[in-house]
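Lay summary. Proteins are chains of building blocks that fold into shapes, and those shapes determine what they do. In this project we predict the shape from the chain. Here is one chain we studied, written as its sequence of building blocks.
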Amino acid sequence: MTTPPTSETHPQSPVDETARRRVPVFAALLVVAILWPLIEFATPIPEDSFPLSYFPMFSDHQRDTDTLNYVIAEDNKGHRANVPPALVTGGSNSMNLARKQLNKIVDRGPDAMKKLCRKIAKRARRATWKGFRPTRIRVVTGEYSIREYFAGNKEPLSEVTHVTCKIPRRRGRAK
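And here is the predicted shape, written in a compact code that computers can read:
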């Protein structure tokens, strides 16, 4: 028959005693970390800080306007459509990639914008536009009211056209 373990047969190691002391301290710190955002939110002027955040970035003061670079296609009547990211990048349909590429090109100046505009125009000639027949491409910087945009008004407050280029006509097609 086996005897149950006792302190004489199984003495506690110093590690066990240290671990037993750390567990309540760790638990208390965990509770404070979980409750800290609630405590911070109750202060008169709460501050957001990583990693203990209650996300005031969504409720703090936001800019009234935002400025964006983009590419539009227009027909002879002035109707316009946003150029899809794949035509800007030359293949990728990633909006972020197109945005970053376009911002770099605009920062480089008029020559870089003209070169990109011509490339997009060639790609636009081969693209399918679902009843829309664009005749030109414009590289534009527009300023938008953020509130109005998300309320449904998608018109820019102002637009600056940097470059305009014609879309080459398809060869061998009758009008």
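What the prediction tells us: The chain has a mean pLDDT of 85.
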